[in-house]
Amino acid sequence: MPLVPETDYGTPASRASAQVTLTIDGRAVTVPEGTSIMRASMEAGIQVPKLCATDMVDAFGSCRLCLVEIEGRAGTPASCTTPVAPGLVVHTQTTRLKDIRKGVMELYISDHPLDCLTCAANGDCELQDMAGAVGLREVRYGMDGDNHVKARSGDGVNAKWMPKDESNPYFTYDPSKCIVCSRCVRACEEVQGTFALTIEGRGFESRVSAGQHEAFLSSECVSCGACVQACPTATLTEKSVIAIGQPEHSVVTTCAYCGVGCSFKAEMRGEELVRMVPWKDGQANRGHSCVKGRFAYGYSTHRERILNPMIRDKVTDPWREVTWEEALAHTASEFRRIQYQYGREAIGGITSSRCTNEETYLVQKLIRAGFGNNNVDTCARVCHSPTGYGLGQAFGTSAGTQNFDSVEETDVVILIGANPTDGHPVFASRLKKRLRQGAKLIVIDPRRIDLVRSPHIEAAFHLPLLPGTNVAVVTALAHVIVTEGLFDEAFIRARCDWSEFEDWAAFVAEERHSPEAIEALTGVPAETLRGAARLFATGGNGAIYYGLGVTEHSQGSTTVMAIANLAMATGNIGRPGVGVNPLRGQNNVQGSCDMGSFPHELPGYRHVSDDATRSVFETLWGVTLSDEPGLRIPNMLDAAVDGTFKGLYIQGEDILQSDPDTRRVAAGLAAMECVVVQDLFLNETANYAHVFLPGSTFLEKDGTFTNAERRINRVRKVMTPRNGLADWEVTQKLAQAMGLDWRYSHPSEIMDEIAATTPSFAKVSYTYLDEIGSVQWPCNEKSPLGSPIMHVDGFVRGKGKFIRTEYVATDEKTGPRFPLLLTTGRILSQYNVGAQTRRTENVVWHEEDRLEIHPHDAELRGIREGDWVRLASRSGETTLRALITSRVAPGVVYTTFHHPTTQANVITTDFSDWATNCPEYKVTAVQVSPSNGPSDWQRDYEDQARQSRRIVGKLEAAE
Questions:
Q1: What is the dihedral of CA 193, 297, 773, 121, to 10 degrees?
Q2: What share of the chain is helix, strand, coil (3-state, %, to 5)?
Q3: Which of 68, 278, 293, 412 has the most crowded CB, counting CB atoms within 10 A?
């Protein structure tokens, strides 16, 4: 199996529709207008030497290797910066060009180390390749260079030489090998949009610099890897390549972190992963990546990973390693005992948004066909269930409307309740690129996120609303659009129910919804809000992107419907550049919803009470299914405390750390008699488990993920599961132990079953995905190539539905005891509960959760930067260090939830969305006060966790 080939055409493709024909080296070549001569040559199979050019960035024309001759024109223009024109006759290889290229290459080599045999880039060095391509045989200028090749000059130190920068945990920077092609600088600017790199010095003294001559680690570099990918030499090199060597084969797979769903080439030597390289043909990421997907895969081989099944009688006992057969037989026996003793409804399961579609499908099938109930839930409900409900009500489908490419055609973006530079960084880079091209941005967020203002971009409006007032703000935007006559009447009459629009318009037009009326409530200046509304309604293609800052509220579903109203009222549905786009937090949140992970829905969002739908599955599975919705996670926990729910199978989730009101979760788990955790590590939930089934990583399995744009992407196995079984195999063996006759031999067979039972997946198969790369559902006979844009000719439900969105204040209110509002979120280097990223070098950027607090609030409480503070709510308290910043407004504090030692969710309450039970993570009334360090509760928790992780024959399985 070789390396997956990728062609570098030198310059980006032109999007022009007009075609141009020219002659290159005697061949007639036809390409789109605006194409560079270099790219046209490459498309004709003629490779022009190059060093500064790559098709991920715009042409630069500095290396002077790609010169060509054009008949009728003087000189030797650079082919990368010269566009094609009708009738041109181009020569890429003449005596004159050969001499020029050799001379240029001599200059490069004269100031470059000649350690090719021991260089990490040996075999993958474009400088080496180009030296061969131009026929370089001698260097007339010598090999000593002028400044930065050698550490010593004669008997003394060479002051011009710079040592390697090895501060970044994932790659090195060797200035002596820099040829100043500027590819890394341009990748940082054009692809990533961080502008962390520059070229310092002039002439032979030129070299790449991070920031103002800083180390990479302490600079503004976000370690996305774009510079490393762009570098044609060993100047920027992955440390893994230096340690292992060049890869010998690669497999295209899909990242297992956020909901962007980036495609990567896993480059291997044998079964050892050398590096992850973003795949240029990946339609979600287009060859870009972030620090997590590019580098943070080390958790798969971390020493704390559990590789053997374990059981114990009581949670106070140490774990005992057993065989797979014993663990699965014990689990099946316990589940059967519990159902015999307490009834059929006494057990249930939780699916994972980190596992594949196929694995999720099997877990819900096990629960429905094996357990005989609908007690299945997922973390997807805990984050984005209001999206499913709200968009389903308004449009008829429970997903976003666009593909990520759509952002390239938008003119105005509303970004509400999302922080994509931290949570969805690859999409953020694409958004920033569009903003630099002139699109306008409206940010609705309590915090001043990076996109409000960062290099070369600035939001046109920032609406810093108080947490919990989303509905009031979005309805006020609609008020301005309706009362000023800015709505799209033609679209509404054609695509929506006009009488429902009239009712909604009368509702939002009421004075109580005006920006002036809600200013005191939301904290958003009325004129700012009016300006934002006018811009969105009149600025061209308008797109709305939102995240958990919308859904994780008591009115999450209402806000989603308000957003849908706004999009329909302005006609921003059904074409590129517009739409309503939820940014999913985990890699398969969308897929876990699609696969029937809710207690009231079968795969494809069909209610369990529907006889026809149940009949499809009953016929295939050979069982009778319950028509009664099952229990959600909070209901399971409450029933456990009440004594009626006693067994739980949890695949790939850590509800003790991720779910709200930690004490309530712990009480529910402690009341159960058989908790089964299937995961990579002994997570926090495993503290209360009786059976531990080791899981497999995305590198060790076949399957599919469905990303935030409904894109179904292949996950491909690149190494043998270290635990012996892929997750789908574990679930199948458990089903067999419980008496089910399952005989899947490969996940492709599971997908075939999904396609046969779920209309939106009807044409999806592994063969089809391998053929076309990826596809966005619905993918069926009506849409055989998938549906990049939804609702093009009409809404799935028929007419778009306008719904009144009455603002109802949350029951979680501030007062004298708890005067501040806490909201939570994520940080770039960490992911969800941190179980994976905390076991990588990413901890150098985020060693602990910190509490962001405004300088005014900190001063009132006598709190200084880095002080330990006590964070208390009605639910509980914890301690962490303070980070004083004006990113949050007075009266608002913010923290992340990546570290279990903080246990931020001991603070959050059990208030939830009225329609879906999605927890209200984003609004908690708190008080902050100075502290001396970790609280008694944190110390007790740590002691209990340490006790719970004991393994017979081992000292401890550290968390």
A1: 70
A2: 35, 20, 45
A3: 293
**791-831 pLDDT tens trace:** 999 999 999 999 999 999 998 999 999 999 999 999 999 99
Rounded CA gap, 470 and 465, in Å? 8
Residue 92: both structure tokens together: 């890429």
Q: How many CA atoms lie within 13 A of 667 on its CB side?
A: 13
C-alpha 488/C-alpha 482 separation (Å) is 10
Separation between Cα atoms, residue 402 and residue 575, nearest integer Å: 8
Residue type, 564: A
Q: 173: which DSSP letter? A: E
CA gap 314, 691 in Å, rounded: 10
pLDDT tens across 255-285, in order?
Answer: 999 999 999 999 999 999 999 999 999 999 9
What's the confidence (pLDDT) of residue 442?
Answer: 98
Report the C-alpha gap between 192 and 425 in whole angstroms: 9
What single-letter amino acid sits at 836? Q
The radius of gyration computed from the CA coordinates of the chain, to the nearest angstrom, equals 29
User: CA 390, CA 398: separation in Å to the nearest integer?
Assistant: 8
Element containing residue 69 per DSSP (H, E)? strand 69-70
H helices of 124-215, in order, are 126-133, 183-186
The pair of structure tokens assigned to 105 is 């290459």
Instruction: Provide DSSP, 610-658.
Output: -HHHHHHHHHHHTSPPP-S----HHHHHHHHHHTS--EEEEES--HHHH
SS3 assignment, position 259: coil
> Is beta strand 850-853 parallel, antiparallel or unpaired with respect to 868-872?
unpaired
DSSP-derived secondary structure letter, 743: -
Phi and psi at residue 621, to the nearest 5°: -90, -15
Place of tokens 């370089």: 136
Q: Cβ distance 840 to 297 under 8 Å?
A: yes
State yes or no: pLDDT of 389 exceeds 70. yes
The helix/strand/coil state of 340 is helix
**Rounded to whole angstroms, how far apart are CA atoms 102 and 418?**
52
Structure tokens of 808? 């109802």
Angstrom distance (rounded) from CA 391 to CA 402: 13
Tokens of 475: 């309805």
d(CA 21, CA 85): 7
Q: Return phi, psi of residue 614, to 5°.
A: -60, -35
pLDDT of residue 727: 97
Short-list 78, 11, 87, CA closest to 43: 11
Task: Round to whole Å and give the CA distance between 318 and 434.
Answer: 55
Token pair of 318, please?
């140490």
Tell me how long the chain is: 959
SS3 at position 269: strand
pLDDT computed for residue 958 by the predictor: 45
* Contact assessment for residue 652 and residue 354, using Cβ atoms and an 8 Å cutoff: yes
Interatomic CA distance for residues 542 and 415, integer angstroms: 11
Q: Is the pLDDT of residue 732 over 90?
A: yes
Which strand (E) or helix (H) includes residue 705?
A: strand 703-706
What is the pLDDT, as a whole number, of residue 959? 43
